Amino acid sequence: MSTLQTKTRSKSGRRRTVSAFSTITVTLLIVALALLMPTQAQAQSQSLCGDTVTVARGDTLRGIAQRCGVSFSALIEANPQIVNRNLIYVGQQINIPQDGLPEQPGETTISISPVSGPVGTRVDVAATGFPADSEIVFGIGPQGLTVETNRVVTGPEGQSETSLVVPDGVEVGQTLVVVAFVTQEDGVVEATANFNVTSGDTQPAVPVQIEPTSGPPGANVQVTASGLPANAIIEMGAGQINTEYDIIAQAQSDAQGNLNRSVRIPELANAGEEWVIAVTPSGSPADYISNQFTVTEPSDDDENQGLFTRTNIYLIALEDEGRSGTQIGCGDSVVPVEVEIEPTLAVLTAAMNSLLDLDERFYGESGLYNALYRSDLSVDSISLVNGVATINLSGEVSLGGVCDVPRFEAQLRQTALQYYTVDSVEITINGEPLAQVVQ
Question: Do residues 34 and 90 share a domain?
């Protein structure tokens, strides 16, 4: 296994460290679990915030609910003026219920990386959806036999991470179980994943692919990956083989855990070096490493290498309920569609123009709906300052009904928010804020 496939790094480049406990049998593990006293966040009689909160850059309704110690459902109920829970704006006032309960943990899951390897392989494990501030016991080994355990206390959102080592004595071809347990008053909460034992010469399959695989510094490469957590924020790093990497972009996987994103090889790369792209789900220790990119000398034929030639626009999967993309109002999903653009550095402007140029109700044979097809809009100006993209449009807006409001907003906003340099979006049409135009 290569060094890069087992490294885990934060944005600062510091490596995460873990501690290991001695091996015990599954029987002893279960007994120990039964004796554990879980520490859980207690229900609160009132919120940790005042009556209202002003939305800041990067805020989400779910994040506000967690910060204020109220349930997400209670927060939604207290804000009937919010048409689309996925779209809130900087400066907007959010009502905070004073009798909401803390949000309950979501689905309990663990992810591992790699998913196969020989004896001695370090397996990075990330757990989500467990009770907050509780001790999780992690283990790895054959079903019903010796398990190597670590114990880690979860964070405020029920997440934790650790590393385990494939133990001696297992056989090539054997399937091991990676498990995470925590005990509660009403029983044991657990999640499992499978690890396949391979020979020492067998390497895990590369889950991330880049194209092209060579070019000069500043070249754009298309990154594709599958098998990632669904609808997850993904950090993307770049670096030479067997070195630390720098975070160069942030993206989001789709509802099937796929990623398709264009990034640029840093200008500091030198000809002859071998670079890779690292893909890391936010909050996870798992690094997924791409195939190699060979840096070449710039030439006169590379005039478009530093320019964007492809981007995404966002369309609507009607009544999809979040299966194909991020769920929005009326049970729809907003879905990225890759399109070609003329080589440019102004990729946000090109993406918005591509979206506004569509005059079809449905996009090709895809069945995806375009809520902008009735409108006649054009881009007047776009600016990006401190992560805030200000998009000024002009023209006529025509919507097909009340459900077209969240669809219209989501298409515009998500087309802008796909870029890692954009934290929030402010849109005007004929000088008026988007929310006022479509209400």
Answer: no
Q: Is residue 425 part of a domain?
A: yes
Q: In this structure, are 413 and 348 located in the same domain?
A: yes
Contacts of 345 (CB under 8 A, 6+ apart): 306, 307, 308
User: What residue numbers bound the domain in which 250 lies?
Assistant: 208-302
User: Is residue 46 situated within a structural domain?
Assistant: no
β-strand partners of 209: 224
pTM score, two decimals? Answer: 0.44
User: Is residue 161 within 8 Å of 154, Cβ to Cβ?
Assistant: no
CA 247 to CA 277: how far, in whole Å? 10
Are 125 and 87 within 8 A, CB to CB? no
* Domain-located, residue 89: yes
Tokens of 229: 């957590």
The total number of structural domains that make up the chain? 4
Same-domain status, 163 and 229:
no
The Cα 222–Cα 228 span in angstroms is: 17
pLDDT tens, position by position, 289-324: 888 899 998 876 555 556 778 888 999 999 888 887
Strand, helix or coil for residue 349: helix
- Is there a single domain that holds both residue 134 and residue 261? no
Paired tokens of 274: 């071998």
Q: Closest Cα partner for 68 from 91, 96, 106?
A: 96
Contact 4, 241 (CB under 8 A): yes
CB atoms within 10 A of CB 64: 21
Report yes or no: 138 and 164 within 8 Å, Cβ to Cβ. Answer: yes
- pLDDT tens digits, 398-407: 998 899 999 9
